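Records of this kind hold a single protein each, on a pair of labelled lines. Below, a sample record shows both lines together.
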Amino acid sequence: MKKDFSVKTIVAIGIGSAVFVILGRFVVIPTGFPNTNLETSYPFLALISVVFGPVAGGLIGLIGHTLKDFTTYGSAWWSWILCSGIIGVVYGFAGRKIDLQHGEFNKKDIIRFNIYQVIGNALVWGLVAPTLDVLIYSEPASKVYTQGVIAVVLNVIAVGIIGTLLMAAYAATRTKKGSLTKD
């Protein structure tokens, strides 16, 4: 996890937000339930959050989801935007002991990260997002909690499979700690 807020991290937030928008707009699989899709933006958010930390992950989730909503719907759905920021923070904290930068991503890292992401997704999308929908927008509870359960399942699967593969691929491109090869 990055401890400083470097120029590299700021650039990552900008580029990460743009990629989040593109993935959220154009690389989704509809579920048939209103406004609930299998999103590829969250596995990407998981990777970037692990590499750059929880603050960057939170900002990418907030900025990316806000821009996606404005460009897709013309307005923002703040409850889920806030939750995208929260889940970015969760992914960042979940990856705090993973050293992808030095090519480290073993079975223990995979299991630990995925346990945290499952719990995080369950709390954020299954509880916080629908509750905010009811409180802020007076949405019908049965509808938004159903959306929440669908979002939990889809995000857990997407991050568990695609996110894990992205992290493994990223780690494989990095020089291992203690290697005699120069960075």
About this structure: The chain has a mean pLDDT of 93. The longest helix spans residues 141-172.
